[in-house]
Amino acid sequence: MADSERIAEIRCLSRPEQLQVVRQRLRGVLGDCGCAQELINLIVLAINEAVMNIMQHAYKGKPSGEIVLEIRRVDNELVFLLIDHADPVDVAGIKSRCLDDVRPGGLGVHIINTIMDKVTFLKCPEGTGNQLELRKKMPMPGVGENGTGG
Amino acid sequence: MSYQVRHEGQYTVVALDGEVDLHRSPEARKQILDQLKKKAHVLVDLSAVKYIDSSGVAVLVEGYQTAKTQQLEFGLVGVSPAAMQVLQLARLDKVFPIHDSVEDRVNARQE
């Protein structure tokens, strides 16, 4: 990644009670980056959904899996890289569902795709685990500060 | 930690609070479904919710659909800005009956 500045790394186990810790630390990091509160709220929501998906679908509820969140900045763009060591997921099967069908579940991917500017599954070097990259542009100073991209 | 349940008029109010996420949403689900099993008309008070994720929203959807099949009322009251943002992202803000307060709903029902 060209000229990227590594800002922070957050690690957790794949236990649902760890989500609050991740959110809290992420809020702190984003605040230190100068993000407006509304943008912080949206990014935290998206990253939480992504981490939840790793817990539920990659690690399939196993509580001892490791999840790593690397946060970088490239110019005015924040780049989030989520890494896990579970079996590779079926990327083709990960899609937003039709929201006209009102039912529980399946909202996480939609929320992530709505908030983030770009979401990409990267190829893992060793062929194991998963790496999900999420990108979000920060508004330039003086320009309206808001949220939903995609 | 259980969520608070109270009775106001003909409604049972389940008051969620704090951060309703994958860790805490199972308890919310249990509380809501338990009340519906007792044939209660349920209002979920979201005024103290600071954060809710898709697992929390899924609990609300399940409650809504369960109530519907049993011909019971189910609505949301005092939806906090944080909760409303997620409902809007999920396009569910027009699906749930939403009221400013329990009192508003009780009074509306009496009219």
Features:
heterodimer, A: alpha+beta, Heat Shock Protein 90, five-stranded antiparallel β-sheet, B: 111 residues, alpha/beta, 4 helices
3D structure, described in words:
The complex is a heterodimer of chains A (150) and B (111). Chain A has 150 residues and is an alpha+beta fold. Chain A has one domain: Histidine kinase-like ATPase, C-terminal domain (Heat Shock Protein 90), CATH 3.30.565.10. In chain A, 29% of the residues lie in helices and 26% in strands. Chain A has helices spanning 19-32, 37-58, 108-115; strands at 5-13, 66-74, 77-84, 118-122, 130-137. Chain B is an alpha/beta fold and 111 residues long. Chain B is globular. In chain B, helix 1 (25-37) packs parallel to helix 2.
Outline of the structure:
The complex is a heterodimer of chains A (150) and B (111). Helices cover 29% and strands 26% of the residues of chain A. With 150 residues, chain A is of the alpha+beta class.
